[in-house]
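Here is one chain, start to finish.
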Amino acid sequence: MKSHRLTHFRARHLLSMLVFAVVQACSGKDNNHTQDKSDDNNLSGTLAPVETRARVALNQQPAFKGQTRIAGIRTKTAIKVSTITTGLNHPWGLAFMPDGRMIVSERPGTIRIVTVSGVPGNPIKGVPAVRNQGEGGLLDLKLAPDFASSRLVFWAYVEPGNGTGVNCVASGKLSSDESAFENVSVIYRGTTPYSSPNHNGSRMQFDSKGLLYVSFGERFDDNIRVQAQQLNSSLGKIIRINQDGSAAPGNPFASLAAARSEIWSYGHRNPQGLAINPVNGELWETEHGPQGGDELNIIKPGSNYGWPVISYGLEYSGQPVNGTGLTGQDGMEQPVYYWDPAIAPSGMVFYTGNLIPEWKNNLFIGALAGRHIIRLVINNDTHRVIAEERLLVSEQQRIRLVVQGPDGALYAITDEDQGRIYRIGI
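Its structure:
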């Protein structure tokens, strides 16, 4: 295993530490780092913004202060980064089993169990065929909330057709000997099979009620991406379903005959990250923008997140998005935060562990093009990002997903031919 240390900050943060001490003294709270609000135990950024590259969309301005290029911050705790394994083929999803082992999906179409020491097992049988082209294939994976008793596993994938692919969600029961999935069922099949292998989205997240949220991209091309704004299509949407694939009760468009009842939100481009904020139960999302304009959003039921009508950044041609370059419009949500140039944000997690107290309730996001992990400090009263840090920059790996392990450390997987699992802790 290899390990190295992230640098400490010293004198340049003296003022910040003094402010923190005064705040703690005035509040009458001890410094135990167990408060619910992340801004109670983390300072706003005091360093220069971590992004130093020139913006792509030079004529655009953020809608509010701190929407992009917020001040930087550095972790004070001495962090150890260890490589658990390097033997995976473009891993996409990772979940911890009750005994601490990891179950991992690989984009070419396999699911395997990785031991605590990092040894990948044989592919588990029973996984349906996938369309392993471009960004498509076998994507996210989640264990049922009651996995210890039900042994149910859910996965998102692109189902192959006649030169096309369509987003699907399947579930299966892991056999007692862990060699196969039993009673495999496609519980949800999206609309509009399409030839493009790109922009599939397909991150999943269970909520406290056991309902499943799934994100779908708009399939990239100009002629089809408009379906992100159409409520009769699953493209460019986040859906909310029961574990049998049916629309969950209380969805915002259930009473509209022309709309799909499973839709929770719409107007998304390529959403690859979903996480529940532990402070307030909100669903947060990351999605890939065009050139610049990668977004972090708070997802509200029935809301329109704008794509492709509004967006930060530019088309890949260098022209304004949708020919207008609009970054805002009435009835369409603004991102909580955005990145220009693009960093390609993917899977994310809010940290709830006690191993590294200064990270409590911070948001950690994998960056593919950026080749790092993003740490964001959130003020949950104002719903604003107040500081940003970049971790694992020296590794130069495409980080697909960050999750929290049962030991309180963070674990990250990399989108590479020899995909890695990292442990980030002490």
